[in-house]
Design brief:
Length: 343
């Protein structure tokens, strides 16, 4: 049993190295190779070797649809060893058409797929019994759609009849033909793109006039991009200015309300300023008024009953104005006589 385990290739459990290439001679598996049914394989039998599954194709422009088909094939049975056959450029160009990738590029793409254990180069277009026995293949995995080619309505028909076919499902929306269609449809876009990246018109197989046209279009696109960038920056600047303006207006309104409130509190009808003026006026009136005098003087009484105050010593007697110079001199002489009598 130990000798069989060492001579039979096992499924890869690590992803440190790419998948191996199938030897040119025959399968290295020396374990007894009895025919299996799908039910037996799903139960994990036989225990002494993995179930060998073969999936073939062109795998041009290797994409997620290819990878998902191989993932399904790898996980059909608990212990599976996946061999992937890749057809050569000669067979593919003969039966299907020109490829974008060379056969070596397609081989390497398959070697680096995590679900692949072994890559068989220059795979046959149709599978013979001799080929299946040589590589000890238990089952062939492919989508269930009839594949008409090489004069046959379905190249997998004899495999289905032998009970060795296990179907996988196609991934909708992705295929090599779809990818090529996208490139052809947008050919001008990709030609301009590669010219911009340094490829020559000769490498792209475009004429001199088309090259100048593409370069002019690239310049126009760059100018448009600059204008668009300036517009975006301008919009961003305007947005920032509007945002700042909104903040400033809001702060101004808050400060205005605060200022008006403080002003009314100070100068309003019942404001602090009025109270201060009244207090200061009262203190000034008290300071200027005599201490013995009442706070308010009584009104003056001009009634005739009130006796006039006695005349002062030095009060001048009231005399009527002289009517003549002689009268004036007599008055003066009488005043002088009166002074002498007092002496």
């Amino acid at each position: 049993m130990e000798e069989l385990e060492h001579t039979c290739p096992l499924p890869r459990t690590t992803l440190i190295e790419p998948a191996i290439f199938t030897p040119e001679t025959s399968c290295e598996c020396r374990a007894p190779h009895e025919k299996l049914t799908v039910e037996q394989a799903r139960l994990g039998t036989p225990v002494d070797r993995p179930v060998r599954i073969y999936a073939d194709g062109i795998f041009d422009l290797f994409h997620s649809g290819h990878a998902r088909a191989l993932m399904q094939a790898k996980n059909l049975f608990p212990n599976a060893y996946l061999i992937v056959g890749v057809c050569s450029d000669e067979l593919t160009h003969k039966y299907k058409g020109f490829t974008v990738m060379t056969e070596d590029e397609r081989y390497e793409a398959l070697r680096h797929c995590r679900y692949v254990d072994e890559v068989l180069r220059d795979a046959p277009w149709t599978l013979t019994q001799e080929f299946l026995e040589k590589h000890k293949i238990d089952f062939v995995a492919h989508d269930d759609i009839p594949y008409s080619s090489a004069g046959s309505e379905d190249v997998y028909q004899h495999i289905k009849e032998a009970g060795m076919f296990v179907p996988t499902k196609r991934t909708e929306g992705i295929s090599t033909s779809d990818l090529i269609t996208r490139i052809v449809r947008d050919y001008d876009v990709y030609a301009r793109r590669n010219l911009q990246r340094g490829y020559t018109a000769k490498e792209l197989n475009v004429s001199y006039i088309k090259e100048k046209k593409y370069r002019l279009q690239n310049q126009v696109d760059r100018m448009k991009e600059k204008v668009r960038t300036v517009e975006e920056k301008s919009k961003h600047f305007v947005y920032r200015v509007e945002e700042k303006s909104h903040d400033l207006i809001q702060k101004w309104e808050e400060k205005s309300r605060e200022f008006i409130g403080n002003f009314l509190e100070l100068f309003g009808p019942d404001g602090t300023w009025k109270q201060m003026i009244q207090e200061r006026s009262g203190r000034m009136i008290q300071a200027l008024s005599p201490r013995c005098s009442p706070s308010s003087s009584p009104p003056r009484d001009f009634s005739p009953s009130r006796s006039p105050s006695p005349p002062s010593r030095w009060a001048m007697p009231r005399t009527s104005p002289p009517t003549s110079p002689k009268g004036a001199s007599a008055s003066i002489s009488s005043m002088s006589e009166g002074d002498e009598d007092e002496k």
